[in-house]
Amino acid sequence: MGNGFYHLVAVLMGAAVGLVGSAFHASVEGLSEGWPAYLMHRLGLEGPALYLAGACVGAAMAVGALYLVRRFAPEAAGSGVPEIEGAMEGLRIVRWKRVLPVKFFGGILALSSGMVLGREGPTIHLGASVAKGFSDAMRWDAEDMRGLLAAGGAAGLAAAFNAPLAAILFVIEETRRQFPYSPRTYIAVILASLSSALVTESISGNTPFMFLAVPEMAMTTLPVFIGLGLLLGVVGVGFNRTLIWFLDHVRRLGLASSFYIFPTLVGLVVGVLVFVLPEATRGGELLAVELAKEGRPLGVLAMIVLLRFAMTMASYATGVAGGIFAPILALATTLGLLYGTAIGHLVALPDGTLPALAIAGMGGLFSATIGAPLVGMVLVMELTGAYAILVPVMLTAIFAHMVFLALGGRPIYEVLLERTFALEAASRPAPPGV
After folding, report:
1. 209/289 Cα distance (integer angstroms)
2. Which CATH architecture fits 219-421?
3. Membrane-spanning residues where (predicted)?
4. How many beta carbons lie within 10 A of that of residue 422, not counting itself?
5. Could you tell me the pTM of the whole model?
């Protein structure tokens, strides 16, 4: 099989991922806005009756999302990125026929319920599953299959955020140990990402997903961005370790009682918060843009940071299909604003510094959790269109990553994959005589 045919398949596969990703995102947005509007406007509920109904809907959606995962495709839990990395390493199997429907419909339920989860992880997993379907149809060998898996994952990320360059770099930097690099596979990743992005843009437009207009920053403000990077390096290590702690303790609760108890509780809470405090719910991409423009008080920002941190941990620990990219970006935006507002009480900051810190915060926390600083820098630029502050973003991201490494931090997807292997090994029965 020649390179031309392989690359043609990558283009077609990328276009298919763009369609699937766009349908997934449109469904999430429609249901997320639809059910609260139905309760308020069609049923005319308000006050305690509205909160009770919201709690019931949130719990039902959370439980339904977990049921689909546990009953039909356990590997569809979480973001799916560790599963793809494991498959590219030859250690996991992508059972695409069951993952595709479960990740699609389970992800719609989970993300629409109000839980603090991102759409990018499911879209990456969907993309890789589509790629596996194409590869099986072609009956390709392991190396070509792994290369197409990487291309499918990149196409999924390109569809999630309309960020094809960051998607390509994600494969190069995040999956550097697993990606079977060759000109053939590398070009396939680029073509699939571009094809997916073109389809996505034709459906949703080509405006940056989280567009924020900011001015250039003076050289005198750069120490402020370095300081933010140092802070986010510490936060990133804490974020990753807390997430694993939550996963372990919620699993113990499930083993001791039922795996549906915790998701029910989380669903009840988010179903109320959707109406009472929407800032503490959902992925938070639009929230990040709103907060960067509004300039809320220090206390309010601190409360949002604490709530979103706690709800991210709780939501991901339920075991439903959902990612952590978007929650990390929203949390980072709020942290950047909180940091900048606090600094502003001590010294005067130039106009535009607060939204610039919010944007730089995204790159910083991404670098200190995912462990991919280059992807963080480029992703932030493509998401916001804020190319005027590229240098501050780079400084924030690299200093955050340096602190992350100095404190012994490890990329969260790497840790999650190792945890999956450890749990599976522990669940196997011991051989006779042991």
Report:
1. 10
2. Orthogonal Bundle (1.10)
3. 50-69, 100-118, 148-172, 184-204, 224-247, 259-278, 298-317, 324-348, 354-380, 387-407
4. 10
5. 0.93
Residue of 329, 309, 413 whose CA lies nearest to 379: 329
CATH number of 3-204: 1.10.3080.10
Evaluate whether 3-204 and 219-421 have a shared fold.
yes
Across-strand partners of 321? 78
Rounded Cα distance between 431 and 434, Å, is 6
Distance CA 210, CA 120 (A): 14
360 vs 409: CA distance, rounded Å: 20
Secondary structure (DSSP) of 301-362: HHHHHHHHHHHHHHHHHT--B-BSHHHHHHHHHHHHHHHHHHHHTTS---TTHHHHHHHHHH
DSSP β-bridge partners for residue 323: 118
- CA end-to-end distance (rounded Å), the chain: 49
219-273 pLDDT tens trace: 999 999 999 999 999 999 999 999 999 999 999 999 888 999 999 999 999 999 9
Residue corresponding to tokens 């995040």:
174
Q: Are the C-beta atoms of residues 191 and 154 closer than 8 Å to each other?
A: no
Tokens representing 128 are: 């890789």
Q: Where are the domains of the chain?
A: 3-204, 219-421
Contact 376, 411 (CB under 8 A): no
Q: Measuring CA to CA, which residue among 29, 26, 38, 22 is closest to residue 112?
A: 29
Cα–Cα dist 337/284, whole Å: 15
The encoded tokens of residue 88 equal 């590219």
